[in-house]
Specification:
Blueprint (H helix, E strand, L loop, with lengths): L1 E5 L5 H8 L5 E5 L3 H10 L4 E2 L16 E4 L23 H11 L3 E7 L3 H11 L4 E4 L9 E6 L24 E3 L6 E4 L6 E6 L20 E5 L5 E2 L2 E2 L2 E5 L8 E4 L20 E5 L7 E3 L17 E3 L2 E4 L3 H7 L12 H10 L3 H8 L4
Helix pairs in contact: 1-7
């Protein structure tokens, strides 16, 4: 099968086809050098075409399947909703142009949830209505996406029941203190909340150069209820780090689905939040504060560890994010963690794409 993938990223579509056992001659249009390097690591025979604006149907063989997930920043409810005036979202029309030029037998376009009026514009150009699928049905991640395709008989996947704790990397070390921190307990305001603040009579933690990123570990606030209501929904949020529940500081339970992965996954919890992992959940080595620490490495910044009342609070590792996108372990290994988070957040959930493509005749 001859496949053309526009905005190919790290080639999640090619991974889905591989898992289906479909042999391909695969053409990819991508400009991110890090994503290209990961694609070539996993699929060295991929024919890279560069910028989508330079791709011409006349220069290609007859295409059987056209794939694409055009940039979504101008459409997303999480973004500024600039719509087709945003030059990134305007790249959708490059997909339309290439589709007209190549006249593929099948096509699949993916994008985020958006206002109905913008969705209708895409539908008019694609000639089919989108199918809305939440990746949560086939993974441990809440990730609602729209799929426009002419592949027949696409139905909703069966929920396989995965939650976050099913994909946690159990090799991550926990640092167990000799004694838990002493806290001042002050109830005020909302009686369902107990704010726990480090005792000001004790020494502060060592000041570090990364504190500008919010890595102070100075304050922990936990809710006494099993969840709090955010935007009117039971989110699985059990508390937050810091003085207010910002998106990057919310703590979520591993007994539910993860939040949707996003490209800007850096900082304390990035856009995905922190996760509450019971101490001893892992199969790794638990270290006492009385022991020497492990050697510090350049990747230690990503752990952002907090330990209170037998729980470990940290952001998800790149390996765990790969698992949330149902990629093979270490698929994105070979570039910096910053780039790994970015391309995983921009990528497709392989299991969902595989579910759709399996209906190709």
């Amino acid at each position: 099968m001859k496949v053309l993938s526009l905005f190919d990223g790290m080639s999640c579509g090619q991974q889905a086809l591989k898992e289906l056992g479909i042999e391909t001659e695969y053409y990819a249009s991508e400009v991110d050098k890090y994503a290209i390097s990961i694609t070539q690591k996993n699929f060295p025979k991929t024919k890279q075409l560069g910028d989508v604006r330079t791709v011409k149907g006349a220069n290609l063989p007859k295409i059987d399947l056209l794939l694409g997930g055009s940039p979504c920043q101008g459409f997303s409810f999480a973004g500024k909703q600039l719509n087709f005036d945003d030059p990134r979202s305007a790249l959708f029309f490059e997909f339309v142009r290439v589709m007209k030029e190549t006249k593929p037998r099948y096509f699949l376009l993916e994008n985020v949830r958006m206002k109905q009026e913008h969705q209708d514009v895409i539908t008019a150009h694609m000639g089919v209505k989108p199918i809305k699928i939440n990746s949560s049905l086939l993974s441990a991640q809440n990730r609602v996406r729209l799929y426009w395709t002419n592949i027949p008989n696409i139905e909703q996947p069966q929920d396989i029941g995965l939650v976050l704790k099913d994909i946690i990397d159990e090799t991550q070390e926990f640092i167990v203190p000799k004694e838990l921190p002493k806290w001042l307990h002050n109830k005020h305001g909302d009686v369902t909340r107990l704010e726990r603040v480090r005792n000001i009579k004790e020494k502060s933690r060592t000041m570090t150069a990364t504190m500008w990123k919010g890595h102070t570990e100075g304050y922990i606030s936990l809710y006494t209820e099993p969840y709090v209501k955010l935007n009117g929904k039971k989110s699985g949020c059990v508390g937050y780090v810091g003085n207010k529940p910002a998106q990057a500081t919310r703590i979520y339970s591993v007994d539910r689905k993860s939040q949707s992965l996003m490209a800007n996954g850096g900082g304390q919890g990035g856009k995905t939040g922190l996760y509450q992992i019971p101490r001893g959940f892992n199969k790794g080595v638990e270290r006492s504060m009385e022991e020497k620490s492990t050697t510090l490495t350049t990747s230690k910044w990503q752990n952002n560890n907090h330990l209170v009342k037998g729980f470990h609070y940290r952001k998800l590792t790149p390996l765990e994010c790969e698992r949330l996108q149902t990629l093979p372990d270490n698929y994105t290994e070979g570039v910096s963690n910053t780039q790994r988070y970015k391309m995983i957040g921009n990528g497709w959930t392989v299991a969902v794409v595989k579910h759709i493509l399996r209906n190709i005749e």
